[in-house]
Amino acid sequence: MDIKLEHDKDEEKLPLLRNTEVPEAERNLVQQAISQTFESTAHLANLLPTGTVLAFQLLSPIFTNLGNCDSTAKTMTSFLVAICGVSCFLLCFTDSFRDSKGNICYGFATVRGLWIIDGSTTLPPEIAAKYSIRFIDFMHAVMSVLVFAAVALFDQNVVNCFFPAPDNETQEILTALPVGIAMDAEASGTQNQEEKLPLLSNAEIPEAERNQIQKAITQTFESTANLANLLPTGTVLAFRLLSPIFTNEGSCDLVSKTMTAVLVAICGALCILLCFTDSIKDSKGNICYGFATFSGLWLIDGSTTLPPEFAAKYKLRFIDFMHAAVSALLFAAIALFDQNVVSCFFPEPSLETEEILRVLPVGIGIFCSIFFVVFPTKRHGIGFPLSTS
Prior knowledge:
It is found in: Membrane. The chain is mainly alpha-helical.
Protein backbone atom coordinates (compact mmCIF):
# COMPACT_ATOMS: atom_id res chain seq x y z
CA MET A 1 0.00 0.00 0.00
CA ASP A 2 2.69 2.40 -0.99
CA ILE A 3 1.63 5.98 -1.62
CA LYS A 4 0.80 5.97 -5.32
CA LEU A 5 -1.70 8.04 -7.27
CA GLU A 6 -3.73 7.62 -10.39
CA HIS A 7 -3.50 11.24 -11.54
CA ASP A 8 -2.28 14.59 -10.34
CA LYS A 9 -4.89 17.29 -9.96
CA ASP A 10 -2.77 19.84 -11.79
CA GLU A 11 -2.63 17.70 -14.93
CA GLU A 12 -5.15 17.66 -17.72
CA LYS A 13 -7.33 14.74 -16.68
CA LEU A 14 -8.71 12.31 -19.23
CA PRO A 15 -12.33 11.29 -18.73
CA LEU A 16 -12.34 7.91 -17.05
CA LEU A 17 -13.55 5.13 -19.32
CA ARG A 18 -16.76 3.63 -18.04
CA ASN A 19 -16.84 -0.16 -18.21
CA THR A 20 -19.63 -0.13 -20.81
CA GLU A 21 -17.58 2.05 -23.17
CA VAL A 22 -14.81 -0.50 -23.72
CA PRO A 23 -15.76 -3.87 -25.27
CA GLU A 24 -14.84 -6.94 -23.23
CA ALA A 25 -11.45 -8.38 -24.17
CA GLU A 26 -11.69 -11.83 -25.77
CA ARG A 27 -8.37 -13.55 -25.23
CA ASN A 28 -6.87 -16.85 -26.29
CA LEU A 29 -4.29 -18.61 -24.13
CA VAL A 30 -1.34 -16.71 -25.62
CA GLN A 31 -3.05 -13.35 -25.08
CA GLN A 32 -3.95 -14.33 -21.51
CA ALA A 33 -0.30 -15.22 -20.81
CA ILE A 34 0.89 -11.88 -22.23
CA SER A 35 -1.65 -9.93 -20.17
CA GLN A 36 -0.78 -11.82 -16.99
CA THR A 37 2.92 -11.13 -17.50
CA PHE A 38 2.29 -7.41 -17.87
CA GLU A 39 0.05 -7.33 -14.78
CA SER A 40 2.70 -9.18 -12.77
CA THR A 41 5.36 -6.61 -13.63
CA ALA A 42 2.97 -3.88 -12.49
CA HIS A 43 2.71 -5.47 -9.04
CA LEU A 44 6.49 -5.14 -8.65
CA ALA A 45 5.96 -1.38 -8.39
CA ASN A 46 4.45 -1.99 -4.95
CA LEU A 47 7.55 -3.69 -3.57
CA LEU A 48 9.15 -0.48 -2.33
CA PRO A 49 8.29 3.22 -2.01
CA THR A 50 10.35 4.79 -4.80
CA GLY A 51 11.00 8.03 -2.92
CA THR A 52 12.58 6.20 0.01
CA VAL A 53 14.84 4.11 -2.22
CA LEU A 54 15.90 7.13 -4.27
CA ALA A 55 16.70 9.09 -1.10
CA PHE A 56 18.81 6.17 0.11
CA GLN A 57 20.66 5.98 -3.22
CA LEU A 58 21.36 9.71 -3.10
CA LEU A 59 22.55 9.77 0.50
CA SER A 60 24.50 6.50 0.84
CA PRO A 61 27.64 7.72 -1.03
CA ILE A 62 27.71 10.79 1.21
CA PHE A 63 27.03 9.03 4.51
CA THR A 64 29.48 6.20 3.78
CA ASN A 65 32.18 8.49 2.37
CA LEU A 66 32.18 6.25 -0.72
CA GLY A 67 32.66 3.16 1.45
CA ASN A 68 35.61 4.54 3.46
CA CYS A 69 33.85 4.63 6.82
CA ASP A 70 35.20 5.76 10.14
CA SER A 71 33.13 5.26 13.31
CA THR A 72 31.08 8.41 12.70
CA ALA A 73 30.31 7.50 9.09
CA LYS A 74 29.37 3.96 10.12
CA THR A 75 26.96 5.29 12.76
CA MET A 76 25.38 7.72 10.27
CA THR A 77 25.04 4.95 7.69
CA SER A 78 23.39 2.69 10.27
CA PHE A 79 20.86 5.42 11.04
CA LEU A 80 20.21 5.96 7.31
CA VAL A 81 19.57 2.26 6.70
CA ALA A 82 17.37 2.00 9.81
CA ILE A 83 15.28 5.07 8.97
CA CYS A 84 14.75 3.99 5.35
CA GLY A 85 13.87 0.46 6.46
CA VAL A 86 11.31 1.73 9.00
CA SER A 87 9.89 4.05 6.34
CA CYS A 88 9.43 1.10 3.94
CA PHE A 89 7.68 -0.83 6.72
CA LEU A 90 5.32 1.96 7.79
CA LEU A 91 4.34 3.07 4.30
CA CYS A 92 2.94 -0.40 3.62
CA PHE A 93 0.12 0.47 6.02
CA THR A 94 -0.96 3.65 4.22
CA ASP A 95 -3.78 4.00 1.72
CA SER A 96 -5.66 6.71 -0.15
CA PHE A 97 -9.08 7.52 -1.59
CA ARG A 98 -10.95 10.40 -3.22
CA ASP A 99 -13.75 12.39 -1.62
CA SER A 100 -16.92 13.65 -3.33
CA LYS A 101 -14.97 16.45 -5.06
CA GLY A 102 -12.12 14.23 -6.23
CA ASN A 103 -9.67 15.43 -3.57
CA ILE A 104 -7.14 12.78 -2.54
CA CYS A 105 -7.03 11.86 1.15
CA TYR A 106 -4.33 9.72 2.78
CA GLY A 107 -4.55 7.60 5.88
CA PHE A 108 -3.10 4.75 7.94
CA ALA A 109 -4.83 1.39 8.02
CA THR A 110 -5.80 0.45 11.59
CA VAL A 111 -7.70 -2.40 13.20
CA ARG A 112 -10.90 -0.34 13.03
CA GLY A 113 -10.42 1.07 9.53
CA LEU A 114 -8.64 3.94 7.82
CA TRP A 115 -7.39 6.80 9.99
CA ILE A 116 -7.16 9.98 7.88
CA ILE A 117 -3.79 11.63 8.52
CA ASP A 118 -4.81 15.26 8.09
CA GLY A 119 -8.27 14.81 9.62
CA SER A 120 -9.90 16.72 6.75
CA THR A 121 -12.83 14.34 6.33
CA THR A 122 -14.44 11.33 7.99
CA LEU A 123 -15.17 8.00 6.35
CA PRO A 124 -18.53 6.35 7.05
CA PRO A 125 -17.84 3.43 9.44
CA GLU A 126 -18.96 0.77 6.98
CA ILE A 127 -16.54 2.07 4.33
CA ALA A 128 -13.68 2.71 6.77
CA ALA A 129 -13.96 -0.90 7.93
CA LYS A 130 -13.13 -2.11 4.42
CA TYR A 131 -9.68 -0.55 4.84
CA SER A 132 -8.95 -2.21 8.18
CA ILE A 133 -5.51 -3.69 8.65
CA ARG A 134 -5.08 -7.31 7.55
CA PHE A 135 -2.50 -10.05 7.94
CA ILE A 136 -1.38 -9.63 4.32
CA ASP A 137 -0.40 -6.03 5.13
CA PHE A 138 2.16 -7.29 7.65
CA MET A 139 3.43 -9.79 5.10
CA HIS A 140 3.86 -7.00 2.54
CA ALA A 141 5.61 -4.81 5.12
CA VAL A 142 8.09 -7.55 6.03
CA MET A 143 8.71 -8.28 2.34
CA SER A 144 9.25 -4.59 1.67
CA VAL A 145 11.87 -4.39 4.43
CA LEU A 146 13.60 -7.50 3.06
CA VAL A 147 13.73 -6.01 -0.44
CA PHE A 148 15.15 -2.78 0.97
CA ALA A 149 17.78 -4.86 2.80
CA ALA A 150 18.66 -6.42 -0.58
CA VAL A 151 18.91 -2.94 -2.13
CA ALA A 152 21.25 -1.89 0.69
CA LEU A 153 23.39 -5.01 0.21
CA PHE A 154 23.58 -4.30 -3.53
CA ASP A 155 25.15 -0.93 -2.61
CA GLN A 156 28.92 -1.48 -2.53
CA ASN A 157 29.42 1.69 -0.48
CA VAL A 158 27.29 0.25 2.32
CA VAL A 159 28.92 -3.17 2.06
CA ASN A 160 32.43 -1.67 2.17
CA CYS A 161 31.42 0.45 5.13
CA PHE A 162 30.32 -2.48 7.30
CA PHE A 163 32.53 -5.18 5.75
CA PRO A 164 35.76 -3.43 4.64
CA ALA A 165 37.76 -6.69 4.41
CA PRO A 166 35.34 -9.67 4.28
CA ASP A 167 36.64 -13.21 4.20
CA ASN A 168 35.70 -15.54 1.34
CA GLU A 169 32.70 -17.02 3.15
CA THR A 170 31.29 -13.60 4.06
CA GLN A 171 31.92 -12.34 0.53
CA GLU A 172 29.98 -15.27 -0.89
CA ILE A 173 27.06 -14.59 1.46
CA LEU A 174 27.05 -10.87 0.60
CA THR A 175 26.97 -11.76 -3.08
CA ALA A 176 24.28 -14.44 -2.97
CA LEU A 177 21.97 -13.16 -0.19
CA PRO A 178 20.60 -9.99 -1.85
CA VAL A 179 20.06 -11.85 -5.12
CA GLY A 180 18.08 -14.55 -3.31
CA ILE A 181 16.00 -12.00 -1.41
CA ALA A 182 15.23 -10.00 -4.54
CA MET A 183 14.21 -13.07 -6.56
CA ASP A 184 11.98 -14.35 -3.75
CA ALA A 185 10.38 -10.93 -3.33
CA GLU A 186 9.85 -10.61 -7.07
CA ALA A 187 8.06 -13.96 -7.16
CA SER A 188 5.95 -13.03 -4.12
CA GLY A 189 5.16 -9.60 -5.51
CA THR A 190 3.79 -11.06 -8.74
CA GLN A 191 1.77 -13.81 -7.05
CA ASN A 192 0.40 -12.29 -3.85
CA GLN A 193 -2.00 -9.74 -5.24
CA GLU A 194 -4.05 -7.83 -2.72
CA GLU A 195 -7.77 -8.32 -2.41
CA LYS A 196 -9.34 -5.44 -4.31
CA LEU A 197 -11.67 -3.23 -2.33
CA PRO A 198 -14.84 -1.92 -3.96
CA LEU A 199 -14.19 1.46 -5.53
CA LEU A 200 -15.66 4.30 -3.47
CA SER A 201 -18.19 6.35 -5.37
CA ASN A 202 -17.89 10.10 -4.90
CA ALA A 203 -21.24 10.40 -3.18
CA GLU A 204 -20.18 8.12 -0.34
CA ILE A 205 -17.36 10.33 0.94
CA PRO A 206 -17.91 13.81 2.43
CA GLU A 207 -15.86 16.56 0.81
CA ALA A 208 -12.57 17.20 2.61
CA GLU A 209 -12.39 20.65 4.21
CA ARG A 210 -8.75 21.59 4.63
CA ASN A 211 -6.87 24.48 6.17
CA GLN A 212 -3.49 25.62 4.82
CA ILE A 213 -1.51 23.13 6.93
CA GLN A 214 -3.71 20.23 5.83
CA LYS A 215 -3.37 21.32 2.19
CA ALA A 216 0.43 21.41 2.56
CA ILE A 217 0.45 17.90 4.08
CA THR A 218 -1.69 16.51 1.28
CA GLN A 219 0.37 18.22 -1.42
CA THR A 220 3.52 16.68 0.06
CA PHE A 221 1.96 13.20 -0.04
CA GLU A 222 0.78 13.73 -3.62
CA SER A 223 4.26 14.85 -4.66
CA THR A 224 5.88 11.74 -3.20
CA ALA A 225 3.22 9.66 -4.94
CA ASN A 226 4.38 10.92 -8.33
CA LEU A 227 7.84 9.46 -7.65
CA ALA A 228 6.29 6.00 -8.04
CA ASN A 229 6.32 6.57 -11.80
CA LEU A 230 10.01 7.48 -12.02
CA LEU A 231 11.15 4.09 -13.28
CA PRO A 232 9.65 0.65 -14.03
CA THR A 233 10.47 -1.28 -10.85
CA GLY A 234 10.93 -4.62 -12.61
CA THR A 235 13.61 -3.21 -14.92
CA VAL A 236 15.56 -1.64 -12.07
CA LEU A 237 15.31 -4.78 -9.95
CA ALA A 238 16.50 -6.93 -12.87
CA PHE A 239 19.46 -4.58 -13.37
CA ARG A 240 20.32 -4.80 -9.67
CA LEU A 241 20.18 -8.59 -9.81
CA LEU A 242 22.32 -8.95 -12.92
CA SER A 243 24.93 -6.20 -12.52
CA PRO A 244 27.10 -8.07 -9.93
CA ILE A 245 27.09 -11.13 -12.21
CA PHE A 246 27.74 -9.32 -15.50
CA THR A 247 30.47 -7.10 -14.02
CA ASN A 248 32.10 -9.95 -12.07
CA GLU A 249 31.67 -7.69 -9.02
CA GLY A 250 33.49 -4.84 -10.73
CA SER A 251 36.51 -6.88 -11.95
CA CYS A 252 35.78 -6.66 -15.67
CA ASP A 253 37.66 -8.11 -18.59
CA LEU A 254 36.69 -7.27 -22.18
CA VAL A 255 33.84 -9.80 -22.27
CA SER A 256 32.41 -8.64 -18.93
CA LYS A 257 32.63 -5.00 -19.99
CA THR A 258 30.78 -5.76 -23.24
CA MET A 259 28.07 -7.72 -21.42
CA THR A 260 27.67 -4.93 -18.86
CA ALA A 261 27.38 -2.32 -21.62
CA VAL A 262 24.67 -4.42 -23.30
CA LEU A 263 22.84 -4.82 -19.96
CA VAL A 264 22.88 -1.07 -19.31
CA ALA A 265 21.76 -0.33 -22.88
CA ILE A 266 18.87 -2.83 -22.78
CA CYS A 267 17.62 -1.64 -19.38
CA GLY A 268 17.91 2.01 -20.46
CA ALA A 269 16.01 1.29 -23.68
CA LEU A 270 13.29 -0.49 -21.68
CA CYS A 271 12.94 2.52 -19.38
CA ILE A 272 12.36 4.69 -22.44
CA LEU A 273 9.96 2.34 -24.25
CA LEU A 274 7.83 1.59 -21.21
CA CYS A 275 7.14 5.31 -20.77
CA PHE A 276 5.04 5.08 -23.95
CA THR A 277 2.81 2.27 -22.64
CA ASP A 278 -0.54 2.67 -20.95
CA SER A 279 -3.40 0.50 -19.70
CA ILE A 280 -7.20 0.47 -19.64
CA LYS A 281 -9.93 -1.76 -18.24
CA ASP A 282 -12.61 -3.32 -20.39
CA SER A 283 -16.28 -3.81 -19.49
CA LYS A 284 -15.41 -6.82 -17.30
CA GLY A 285 -12.53 -5.14 -15.48
CA ASN A 286 -9.80 -6.95 -17.44
CA ILE A 287 -6.63 -4.89 -17.80
CA CYS A 288 -5.42 -4.28 -21.35
CA TYR A 289 -1.99 -2.84 -22.15
CA GLY A 290 -0.96 -0.89 -25.21
CA PHE A 291 1.52 1.51 -26.77
CA ALA A 292 0.60 5.16 -27.16
CA THR A 293 0.83 6.24 -30.80
CA PHE A 294 0.15 9.48 -32.66
CA SER A 295 -3.36 8.24 -33.44
CA GLY A 296 -4.27 6.71 -30.08
CA LEU A 297 -3.64 3.57 -28.03
CA TRP A 298 -2.52 0.44 -29.84
CA LEU A 299 -3.38 -2.61 -27.71
CA ILE A 300 -0.51 -5.08 -27.63
CA ASP A 301 -2.47 -8.33 -27.43
CA GLY A 302 -5.25 -7.17 -29.79
CA SER A 303 -7.89 -8.64 -27.50
CA THR A 304 -10.30 -5.71 -27.80
CA THR A 305 -10.75 -2.49 -29.74
CA LEU A 306 -11.12 0.96 -28.27
CA PRO A 307 -13.72 3.32 -29.68
CA PRO A 308 -11.78 5.85 -31.82
CA GLU A 309 -12.89 8.85 -29.76
CA PHE A 310 -11.46 7.28 -26.59
CA ALA A 311 -8.33 5.84 -28.19
CA ALA A 312 -7.45 9.35 -29.40
CA LYS A 313 -7.30 10.59 -25.79
CA TYR A 314 -4.32 8.30 -25.16
CA LYS A 315 -2.25 9.48 -28.13
CA LEU A 316 1.39 10.50 -27.79
CA ARG A 317 2.15 13.94 -26.41
CA PHE A 318 5.32 15.97 -26.04
CA ILE A 319 5.39 15.35 -22.27
CA ASP A 320 5.70 11.60 -22.94
CA PHE A 321 9.01 12.17 -24.71
CA MET A 322 10.16 14.36 -21.83
CA HIS A 323 9.23 11.64 -19.32
CA ALA A 324 11.09 9.05 -21.42
CA ALA A 325 14.24 11.18 -21.56
CA VAL A 326 14.14 11.90 -17.82
CA SER A 327 13.50 8.21 -17.08
CA ALA A 328 16.61 7.29 -19.10
CA LEU A 329 18.61 9.93 -17.24
CA LEU A 330 17.47 8.58 -13.90
CA PHE A 331 18.38 5.03 -14.89
CA ALA A 332 21.83 6.33 -15.85
CA ALA A 333 22.09 7.75 -12.33
CA ILE A 334 21.05 4.38 -10.87
CA ALA A 335 23.78 2.72 -12.95
CA LEU A 336 26.36 5.26 -11.76
CA PHE A 337 25.32 4.60 -8.15
CA ASP A 338 26.27 0.94 -8.72
CA GLN A 339 29.93 0.62 -7.74
CA ASN A 340 30.26 -2.63 -9.70
CA VAL A 341 29.36 -0.81 -12.91
CA VAL A 342 31.60 2.16 -12.08
CA SER A 343 34.55 -0.12 -11.26
CA CYS A 344 33.95 -2.02 -14.49
CA PHE A 345 34.17 1.04 -16.76
CA PHE A 346 36.44 3.19 -14.59
CA PRO A 347 38.79 0.80 -12.74
CA GLU A 348 41.33 3.51 -11.90
CA PRO A 349 39.63 6.91 -12.26
CA SER A 350 41.54 10.13 -11.85
CA LEU A 351 40.58 12.48 -9.01
CA GLU A 352 38.59 14.66 -11.40
CA THR A 353 36.75 11.68 -12.87
CA GLU A 354 36.05 10.30 -9.41
CA GLU A 355 34.57 13.62 -8.32
CA ILE A 356 32.33 13.69 -11.40
CA LEU A 357 31.20 10.10 -10.79
CA ARG A 358 30.34 11.02 -7.20
CA VAL A 359 28.47 14.24 -7.90
CA LEU A 360 26.80 13.58 -11.27
CA PRO A 361 24.33 10.82 -10.23
CA VAL A 362 23.27 12.83 -7.18
CA GLY A 363 22.54 15.86 -9.35
CA ILE A 364 20.66 13.77 -11.90
CA GLY A 365 18.61 12.09 -9.18
CA ILE A 366 17.57 15.40 -7.62
CA PHE A 367 16.73 16.95 -11.00
CA CYS A 368 14.65 13.94 -12.12
CA SER A 369 12.77 13.80 -8.81
CA ILE A 370 11.85 17.48 -9.07
CA PHE A 371 10.80 17.02 -12.70
CA PHE A 372 8.45 14.13 -11.94
CA VAL A 373 6.96 15.99 -8.99
CA VAL A 374 6.28 19.11 -11.06
CA PHE A 375 5.33 17.29 -14.28
CA PRO A 376 3.87 13.93 -13.19
CA THR A 377 2.84 11.30 -15.70
CA LYS A 378 -0.72 10.05 -15.79
CA ARG A 379 0.04 6.90 -17.76
CA HIS A 380 -0.06 3.49 -16.07
CA GLY A 381 2.05 1.38 -18.36
CA ILE A 382 3.89 -1.92 -18.15
CA GLY A 383 5.97 -2.11 -14.97
CA PHE A 384 4.31 0.92 -13.36
CA PRO A 385 1.59 1.10 -10.66
CA LEU A 386 -1.86 0.11 -11.90
CA SER A 387 -4.77 2.51 -11.82
CA THR A 388 -7.77 1.25 -9.87
CA SER A 389 -10.06 3.00 -12.31
